[in-house]
User: Fold these one by one.
Assistant:
Number 1:
Amino acid sequence: MANIRTRTERNHYFKFNNTKKRYNTYGRQIDVKGLFIFLYMFCYVLVEEILFSVGLDYGFNIYKLLFALAAGALLYFAGVAPKNHKIGWGIQVAGIIAVGTVYISQFVYVGIFATPYMVASLSGTGAAMEFFGVAVNMFFKKWYISAFYVLQIVIFFTIYRKAHKTWEKPKEIFKYSLLLFVIITVASIVCPIAFARNLNGAGYYILYEHIPVSSAKQVGMLPSMLLDVKFNVFGISEEYDSENAGIDHITLEHGDENTQTETQEESPQEDTQREYQQNVLPIEFNMNEENETLLDMNEYFSSREPTMENEYTGMFAGKNLILITAEGWSGFVIDEERTPTLYKMKTQGFDFENFYTPIWNVSTSDGEYVATTGLIPESGVWSYTEIADNSMPMAFGNQF
């Protein structure tokens, strides 16, 4: 090599050894198989996350990039760490299948229900199977995304498998791959906590609260599911301090004159002869309660100042109630000729405009739970199942 001096000679020296499958240039060897194995496994989760985010318009940011690369580095390290080739291959097979299954299933699920499924709600997959036909349609509707998911798996079990089986691992690969995994993992956790702890930032969803859609948009689908386990399975969270988190106070403006209803509802004429009473239920609070939680509740509720009756109190006494849970509701269905009853309800009844509807974690069921009980559902569980044996005197069913 020392005798190679001209550019032509150097170009001719660059050669490919077919037996060892290595490039040799200026005395340095580039392990083609090793490079392919590294790039494929290192970027596998990243490609999955990009497909998921692009296919569902979830956006992409630096924190998703870091978390995806950290997961890919873990898969790579798990495959090259064991001395036995078959063990390393088996670990990577399990990892690839698990990650691919999560992303494909979440991709289809979000496409149907507009929210990711949670780990705790996996017990209800039997009910979700009623939408199997819809899931298949969703999978083929975005065939170009689905095809890339399938292509990655095909490449893994064909080209990657052949390369991994005959690859001669360098001795230093263990420590280098471990070091890479540690560096990227630390960066993926430290960066969002240090630079994005504000409300709705990636750090906020790592430390304080798990909101499936927002969390998946900020940190990625796979980290969001791990955070689901952290918050809802192990109950690990911190109390959010908005004053120390640099949060600006936000003033919400509730529309303008153009957003008002066609016919404003007039308040009923106040009966000046009527004597309004306090809204007090005949409840005796036990101050000798031994259960500390119940005692705290008794002390709190018994000390609350009751509200007063007003001109609306008792307006619907003796009337029936029809409750409609309209998932995916749109005001376009209200038409004076085509839907006269809905039109009358909107223009002559109570029309509440300054409100928002959250995307509940268990979708339709949680929405109905809120409407019928007046309670906020607990994240990560099937709330109706959890209260099945509870006394619910204030729920609609018991009120009527």
Note: Residues 52 and 83 are 34 Å apart (CA to CA).
Number 2:
Amino acid sequence: SEIDRVLADAVNADPSSAPARVARVNYLLATDRAKEALDAALSAQSAIPDDMRVLESLAQAQKANNNFSQAVVTFGKLAALLPRSPGPLIGQAEAYIADKDWIGARGALQKAVALNPNDASNQLFLINTIAGSGQPDAARAAARALQKAQPKSAMGYIAEAGVFSSQGQSAEAENVLRSAMKTVDEPVLAIQLVGLLLRDKRTKDAEAVVSQWTEKHPKDQTVRLAVAEASLSAKNFELSSRMYRSLLRGAPDDPVFMNNLAWALGQTGDPEALSLAVKAAAKAPSNPAILETLGQLQLSAGESAKAIQTLTKATELAPANAVLRLSLARAHAKLGQKNEARAQIEIIRNLIAPATVRQDADALLKTL
């Protein structure tokens, strides 16, 4: 409420200030108040009709309100003001896609690519859009054209593999990536191949790719780290544990690797988890995320008083982090400390927090 008041005062103090108006729109969007954000953006456009920053914020507010056709028009106005920038065209393409207008998206992306033909990421977006519009043959042709134009870039091969994968042709996608890895020495190809193999439940084959890459590039941690993080997010804790152990062998004092290994092991009930978390916290005592892991594992191990102390310290280090406060609230709730849990939930309600965190906090409140 205090931030709301200050931003409103800023707009009232100088209604022609684009930074003040845009800051207010962005804040309202960040706090999941899409309708208020749109009203603020429309008011900003009325006051400053041709300001590029205002138009950008209006387009984003229109998208947040599912007003995709209006967002397309607004991005079009922005593109006219910035005729050499592909950014507004990319935004317009995203709005077209959200509105299921594949032809419009394709047209916008073709213009963006023409402005900067060397930007492979925009070309990849275009190819994926062509595939999404139900034209896989045309998408593959565009991917191969990109390969020919940029033979040392991984993007064209990733695009072709992506088209095959979207059609359920995993074997063909795998062949493209393995073939590309023979001539293009980029870790992203290995990461894409590992991801494909894991989606097909071929864990051993995926680990073999990681091992081959590591043997060829012993100092490069990119592939192992990507696989470790992805498998941790996917709750494949056994694979994640093996990857983080491998990373720790190359960097035995890295507290983040220790912390993430501790978390993965903790999810499988491995008793080593808590001791690793203690070591990680000793090396990074001011890292709130590492302290959160330690607190959670202490709670699981029955060390309730230590857990509350650790999680409290984490929130003191990052008082505006709603995720940490939710962890502390859950710890209080688990110990029957309902008033303390409610206090943390009340703080969360006054923070900028993801919608999922707010929903989880509300669900926890109902159990108290």
Note: Residues 34-47 form the longest helix (14 residues).
Number 3:
Amino acid sequence: MNDPNGLVFYQGEYHLFFQHNPFGTGWGNMTWGHAVSEDLVHWRQIDNAICPDDLGHIFSGSAVVDWRDSAGFGGGRETMVAFYTSAGSMVSPPRPFTQSLAWSSDRGRTWTKYPENPILPEFRGGNRDPKVIWHEAAGRWLMALYLDGNDYLLLTSSDLTNWAKLCEVTVSGASECPDIFELPVDEGPDTRWVFWGASGLYLLGDLTADGFVPHGAAQKSELGATGYAAQTFSDIPAADGRRIQISWMAGAKFPRMPFNGQMSFPVELTLRRFNDGVFLCRQPVREIERLYGRCIELCETDLTVGRQLVPETRHDLLDVSIEIEAPATAAVVVLINGSALHITPDQGKFSFLGRDVPLTPPHEGRLTLRLLIDRTSIEIFDASGRLSAGFAMLPEAGDVPLVFQAHVKNVRLHRLTIHELKSIW
């Protein structure tokens, strides 16, 4: 599996469509797989949703609920509508990359492809990954489409089938799989629009009648080695109001297993104001607490140079919060399933699996990190969520899942909280 597609909530179910190969563990035969969940934690895979045809293999896209039946597919009732790229170079004779749609009137269990597909021609070679949202203020549909390089196209429609160009958007350093959504700043009346690219870069700005107007340069949200092609759910009920995102953890490979690839744990997105500006923050959704089992907590524990602190757990699924009280020169190592996480506040970074990630400056001399540890991955966050980094990994040899070491004196764990997690299966 790779990219998450068509994330949408409808009639009590979260729908996760995803790129995958139904016939093997290598890339190919791109098809929309389909899984559903009632709680974002426990997922059930159901029949494939959209399969290749003579227009091409089924590349990434999005899904919405057409509550007003603006496309006319439901005979006056709402339908689920999916948008995807028909990757024409994958079929014979080869065709351009075009954009297509399908709809469902049975809660996504079966899909009907629009007989007049494609709905959009090729604009540039390889254009792909349509992300469609309803823009309430403008009373129209909005599509973000990847063109090539760092360039994207915004289009508008009143009926989901006929689209007009609005503007181009450039996100330097980003590519593929756009997303666009509005969020409040610090849960207040002030809002920003977020334009997101596959590599975790995003722009903040305004959405006007003429298009997207960015405020400043692109920022990096996903700082890890593997988070890619993230997408947010559409049609989350207003009473909930969260913006929830799932990423593909690129590079997750499992030799001799009958599967390959994995998704990240769902995160909630917020915009928060800091001294140096407004930034997008990411934290695991609260539903993770449904998996909490035994809790281990240590407070005011000194880390001694030359001695290891080994928490009393042998569990391999963990939600760990670490609050370190340390001098600026502190150097702390956390062994996670045998791999070393080096935390060096004086250098303003942590290092893991050969990658350096900048740390948010400690608050009042304390640094807080949250580690979401699975059998084949680790996702790291700071207290604000401004730092988030995902890593796919296979465990090293070791007898325990967690070991703490200090490389200088006067390092204290102000608080260490470990929640053992139940399996989602």
Note: The chain is about 0% helix and 50% strand.
Number 4:
Amino acid sequence: MRIILKYEGDLFTGGPAGGFAQAAFGPLVLGLVGGDADLAVAVTQELFPTNFGFDSPFNTTTESLAFFGQVEYDLADDLVLTAGVRWSEEEKETSFNQHFSLFESPNSSTVTLRDSLGIGTYWSYDDGRYSNIGAYTFEGGAIPLIEGEAETTIKDDFITAKLGLDYQLNEDTLLYASYNRGVKAGGFNAPLDATLFAYGALAPEQMNFDSETLNAYEAGFKMTLMDGLARLNGAAYYYDYQDYQAFALDSLTLFVFNTDAVNKGFELELQASPVEGLDLLLGAAYIDNNVEDGYTTPSGDTIDRRAIMTPEITANGMIRYEWAAGSGTVINTTSATWTIISSS
């Protein structure tokens, strides 16, 4: 089977950030006015009023082509092999430009004056280059000028695959094992605060992030109990991520970056309907997760961390009972969830 995807988006990031700009550029202005604090405050508030902010329109296009197929083969009466493969080619392009602008109000996203400082496009990432050629020159100083070559087009092809075995131990028990290889394509960041590039806090290459590859191994069982009135499912898994797409918050900007990660654990689930009208559900899961060099400390050191929204232990339960009442039905449902989130 063949799949073709084409996408084009004209997007926007930004918003008022007058207080941030005053704090960020205040020391620079203070130095440029010879250390006169009162004059520095006046100049800073004039340049960066409360409705001052970052205005960043950008365009992205994606074209993707894929071919895939899957086959199931009976190795024996009680043993089934499933195999599948997919080849994909994806091309992405971006055009990103950031301006210092004035908004309708400190709480508005409507731009009333683009490029309020008169410096042109402050940060550009387009046509295979990056630059802040509109760098603003102050009396006795200037915002540093940087420019260079950039990969504003990403073209990649990758293969994903599936291999699984299902073994019917008896009429009530299925055992299975599987391997899956998945790929999440790379892409481009859309920074809210591109001043980080000009001052060297971020490398221009961080506008891009690479594709993520997952090798997932899983084994488990599915059992029917109580003559079909209950089902018990269990699985253990090991997920090995290469170039995992993690994220970091720098100043006002959330950046995606690549590192390695491991996710492993197990889960159990029991579903039962012991009597008519009564449904029970119990579940439990354990996850051991680690993202390598996932966090950079204020001192510049990198440490491992746990991925967000990844609790270490979870348990859940639900009781549902329904009964006839007159010409209708009454349903009562009670559920609970218990979660432990690791501090690592």
Note: The radius of gyration is 28 Å.
